[in-house]
Amino acid sequence: GAVVSQHPSWVICKSGTSVKIECRSLDFQATTMFWYRQFPKQSLMLMATSNEGSKATYEQGVEKDKFLINHASLTLSTLTVTSAHPEDSSFYICSATGTENSPLHFGNGTRLTVT
Amino acid sequence: AQSVAQPEDQVNVAEGNPLTVKCTYSVSGNPYLFWYVQYPNRGLQFLLKYITGDNLVKGSYGFEAEFNKSQTSFHLKKPSALVSDSALYFCAVRDTGSGGYQKVTFGIGTKLQVIP
Prior knowledge:
Number of strands of chain B: 12
Largest sheet of chain B: 6 strands, mixed
Low-confidence stretches of chain B: none
Order of helices and strands of chain A: EEEEEEEEEEE
Helix content of chain B: under 10%
Number of helices of chain B: 0
Structural class of chain B: mainly beta
Distance between the termini of chain A: 37 Å
Shape of chain B: globular
Radius of gyration of chain B: 14 Å
Mean pLDDT of chain B: 91
Helix content of chain A: under 10%
Shape of chain A: globular
Number of helices of chain A: 0
Largest interface: A-B, 24 and 21 residues
Strand content of chain A: over 45%
Distance between the termini of chain B: 41 Å
Oligomer: heterodimer
Order of helices and strands of chain B: EEEEEEEEEEEE
Strand content of chain B: over 45%
């Protein structure tokens, strides 16, 4: 089946630094990738949708200058949390899809802790 | 706008008994419906989907779901629960009438606890 690799699985950083999270589709071309944030005991909150070669579409309330998304190729999207603060600590999950009717394939998530 | 409701925060079932995790949805057009499972500190794994065709959909790990258009429901079921089925289950919907195919809305999740 389709595999999405997300790296790192966990990261601890100091307040004010930036963190990059990578999401790769290993065996299919991901025309669209999604980035979610998940709070404890809550559902996934869609942050942004990215299509290869174009600017990401951010959901309302998500700061695009803080959460930089780059979808440089059909197999790679990155999320950079800039100038991280403790309130950015969360579980970030990416997903990818190749075709319109395909299910989303998820990475294993990244646990970000900002100290 | 599309939405998904999972009315139960948690479902407890004895091992070997049948289980049901409920999901209802709201869309303007026809729905694409999905079920995913999440284990602690992991991403979501796809279980099954309904696009069109038979209302009863069979998926991974012995799970199945029944699409009921009149009740706008897509309940997840399994005839005999295993302890290893204990996890967080998400129902999701995409509205084919929304234009553009990307956005999928997830329910809040239902924690399934299978008791040995």
